[in-house]
Amino acid sequence: MKTVQEIADLVGGRVHGDGALEIQTVGSLERATHGTLAYAEGKHLAMVGSTEASCVLIPDIELPARTVIVVAKPRVAFARAAQWLLPPRLPAAGVHETALVASDVTLGANVSIGAWSIVEPGASIGPGTVIFPGGYVGAGATVGADCILYPRVVLYPGTTVGDRVILHAGVVIGSDGFGFVFDGERQIKVPQVGRAQVGDDVEIGANACIDRGALDETIIADGVKIDNLCHLGHNVRIGDHSVISAQTGIAGSSTVGREAVIGGQVGIADYCRVDDHGIVGAQCGIPSRKRVPAGQPFWGTPARPLKDIKKQRGYIHRLPRMANEIARLRAELDALKAKLDE
Amino acid sequence: MKTVQEIADLVGGRVHGDGALEIQTVGSLERATHGTLAYAEGKHLAMVGSTEASCVLIPDIELPARTVIVVAKPRVAFARAAQWLLPPRLPAAGVHETALVASDVTLGANVSIGAWSIVEPGASIGPGTVIFPGGYVGAGATVGADCILYPRVVLYPGTTVGDRVILHAGVVIGSDGFGFVFDGERQIKVPQVGRAQVGDDVEIGANACIDRGALDETIIADGVKIDNLCHLGHNVRIGDHSVISAQTGIAGSSTVGREAVIGGQVGIADYCRVDDHGIVGAQCGIPSRKRVPAGQPFWGTPARPLKDIKKQRGYIHRLPRMANEIARLRAELDALKAKLDE
Amino acid sequence: MKTVQEIADLVGGRVHGDGALEIQTVGSLERATHGTLAYAEGKHLAMVGSTEASCVLIPDIELPARTVIVVAKPRVAFARAAQWLLPPRLPAAGVHETALVASDVTLGANVSIGAWSIVEPGASIGPGTVIFPGGYVGAGATVGADCILYPRVVLYPGTTVGDRVILHAGVVIGSDGFGFVFDGERQIKVPQVGRAQVGDDVEIGANACIDRGALDETIIADGVKIDNLCHLGHNVRIGDHSVISAQTGIAGSSTVGREAVIGGQVGIADYCRVDDHGIVGAQCGIPSRKRVPAGQPFWGTPARPLKDIKKQRGYIHRLPRMANEIARLRAELDALKAKLDE
Asked: What would you measure as the largest C-alpha separation in chain B, in angstroms?
């Protein structure tokens, strides 16, 4: 529990109203009750007067007759305040008696390793990291400080994970890339001898899969957020602070720059490049070896600038009119010719 | 083992032939053998005379010279009879000695909790429910009666699951939604403090992922069936008895009404609405904030009524002819002008 | 560690240079160092002179002034050599003390069964097979010889797996197919009483899901390679040595012939057929009951021969010019008519 004033101090905002009000939780404007912090931007500002929230984070507008905190970016401030008010409830530090931790493993201070977890030889787990039950940390893998590995995460041998990383249930990192060569009779497996490397402050959604590099590394840079059920192939590289929505697949050796935004169910074939700040719309398909520059959103399969796609769709919508006009031209021209032949 | 007459009584059908024949199993018309129950509808009725099945469920047609059960909906009756003849083989009741069940957990009668399962504090498990090995039921989660959780299901804290729910291996329910806000330098995590709520008679396929609400609830209503590897984002709501095929993704805050049918690999962006009885074809893409009304199937990306898509495709197929006709018009018009200029 | 000559003998190649050089590992031309074997084909042959690799596998070209092995198919030879040089590091044989193996299970010689694995009654595990921690082998399931099941693989009861099969972390095989029939009020589950059958030399990627047959079998034939997060529905059949890329879904009762190549994120609806050697491009959608013949790649949704799609796209790109030409024809024709009316 914090006071409105304490929250204002945290987010660098200015209290208007009662700074001593106590805040227990966060909520939406519609469903907030006493003790709740909410936020409002844009059209939702109309609800600031009627919400039952005890305090609302708002931008610098005409002040309403209620307790608010005025702040430049209410949604960002809300996220910060919510993190502070409602830290995730995590298991206590300690290694569960059933966990199997190899004797040479380096464990930082205050690690929590849940029941039936395995940490194989040569691995290391940084201070403050929590591994929920059923985690598997392969030989030589390293996990940094203050990470959370939810139940049943699997890290293949040699995987490296930075600090403050969140891996949701069922995530698999470092699995074999999909590399085969057909010898005329059968597919021969190309050994996958690289590694997967995950930076700091990364979050990866449930049951997502990241393959390790074939010969070199698969790299997820700092601050990258990857949603549920995504697939990243071998040698993929994702730049700092990029965001990848659910069920997107990125095939081998493709790279995504920093601060790029990739929609859901996008398919990026192999050896592609999405530039820094590139924007790829949901369900896009990017064919092999193509590049997506920044500056405008791409959409469709094969992906093209959204404005080109829209222009093309406009022409397609005109097709019935075009067909009619062609028929009219034909009739008029035939009539004219008949008349001249008379 | 049941007799033909017993099965007819169960499904409300009428025996023609030998009601005392014994039925052990169910099968397809093509591969059925002695002791097998099959069913036939439509064109498959031609096989009723030749199948080796001991009994066939058929609609009210001219009766063949063999043992059949006449019933209004043979496929529905077959499903019911098969459930009765072949109940799933489930582990015996009891809590495995290796399972970790917190001391304050409420366990119903005849629950079965498999090896290396965890039921965290404050959780409750209804009577007759089976948790296969490796299940994880988070703090405060509730599972109703007569559910089956196949191996390695993960329920995050606070998740609620109704009665007679089937969750296949690797299902994750209640994971964090994908909520971040960019502060200009990095993505700030928006705490996900809602819950996921699953109704009665729901079935969810292997490795599917359902995120919990950001502030409120993600809701899967009664009777919903969700196939393998689907993704449902935070605050999604699915109405009663809707069916969602494999690998479909539904982004945050979208709603699907009751008795809707969603094909495989569909992508529904955020804040969309599929109405009650809506039909969305496979691989459809529904852009943000769009609505799919009922009454006709939708298809394509962006999704539109199937008949509009078909009409448009018809025009696109006519393009070569249109181009030719334009070229002919040009030639004829030029010839005419030349002639008139003479 | 092997010598260049030993590797040449293995792959059937011819040494040019120093056959006694020692090779420890494999790598890419760009990043290879001393002791590394690389390979070069096509445009990469330009790098053979400058790589620091100790030996390069090359095709029969003009010989460079360095140690190489000349071989018909360098990439195939590289895969073979890499398998030999870098066998996967696997756990030692033995059944971990925490594993629960039913008393009637048949275990081959030298099996390795990891911690907290379960092998249910009636199952059998072939010689040399490794089950990583947390594996679940259901009742009556059989796993052949020399397989690798990475952590947390789940085989439902009755599943059969051939020899030398690799199943990555989180794979689920034999889950219930998605079979329901609507009785007017609710979806009735159609019991799924078939099996899933996986041939020899199959590899299946992380978190992929294969449902068992409804009444009969789901069949993955020998040598098939399936990438991460794929979904195969009930009664699907995949022919020998076919390759299916990540996140592809194949719905119930569809068949894929032998040596077919299916791209990533492909959706194949139910009752389809991809012929032997068929090629289906990434993100293709194949509607229900359609057939993809061999001989040319298919692409798009609905999938059609790539050359038809390209031709159609060409016409669509011409639309602006067509519209302009129609407008010109209109103007000229109107002018002509006006002139004649004078």
From this structure: 105
Q: What is the mean pLDDT of residues A24-38?
A: 91
Q: How far apart are CA A215 and CA A224, in angstroms?
A: 23
Structure-token pair, residue A260? 């790029």
Report the b/e string of C55-83 with b at 16+ CB within 10 A: bbbbbeeeeeebbbbbbebbbbbbbbbbb
The burial of C184, by beta-carbon neighbours within 10 Å (0-12 exposed, 13-18 middle, 19 or more buried), is given as exposed
Structure tokens at C203: 């590899």
d(CA C197, CA C237) in angstroms, rounded, equals 9
Instruction: Please give the residue of chain A at the shortest CA–CA distance from C31.
Output: A216
Please check whether the domain covering C94-305 is classified as CATH 2.160.10.10.
Answer: yes
CATH superfamily of C2-85: MurE/MurF, N-terminal domain (3.40.1390.10)
- ∠ CA B139-B142-B146 to the nearest 5 degrees? 140
In this prediction, residues C73-90 reach a mean pLDDT of 93
Residues of chain A in contact with residue C116, where contact means CB-CB under 8 angstroms, are 116
User: Residue A18 pLDDT > 80, yes or no?
Assistant: yes
What phi-psi label fits residue A17: left (phi over 0), alpha (psi between -120 and 50 degrees) or beta? left
- Among A37, A247, A324, which would you mutate to test the B interface (most chain B Cβ atoms within 10 Å of its Cβ)? A247
Q: Alpha-carbon torsion B49, B55, B58, B62, what sign? A: positive
pLDDT at residue B342 is higher than 80: no
3-state secondary structure of A230: coil
Residues A250 and A236: beta-carbon distance below 8 Å: yes
Coil/strand/helix, residue A118: strand
Catalytic residue among C234, C241, C277, C317: C234
As for the ipTM of the complex, it is 0.95
Residues of chain A in contact with residue B178, where contact means CB-CB under 8 angstroms, are: 205, 225, 227-228, 245-246
Of A205-219, A283-297, C303-317, C327-341, the poorest mean pLDDT is in C327-341
Helices (H) and strands (E) in chain A, counts: 4, 41
Q: Do B26 and C180 touch (CB under 8 A)?
A: no
pLDDT in tens, A184-224: 999 999 999 999 999 999 999 999 999 999 988 999 999 99
Average the pLDDT over A108-131 and give the result. Answer: 98
A1 pLDDT higher than 90: no
Residue of A16, A168, A231, A234 with catalytic role: A234
Q: Do C316 and A318 make contact, defined as CB atoms within 8 angstroms?
A: no
Q: Clarify whether A234 is annotated catalytic.
A: yes
pLDDT of residue C1: 85
**Whole-angstrom distance, CA of residue B39 vs CA of residue C113:** 43
pLDDT at C340: 85
Q: Mutation test of the interface with chain B: which of A98, A229, A279, choosing the one with the most B Cβ atoms within 10 A?
A: A229
Q: Is the peptide bond before B297 cis (omega within 30 degrees of 0)?
A: no
Check CB contact under 8 Å for A156 and C134.
Answer: no
For chain C, the farthest-separated pair of C-alpha atoms sits apart, in whole angstroms, at 105
How do strand C14-16 and strand C68-70 relate by DSSP bridges?
antiparallel
pLDDT, position A87: 87
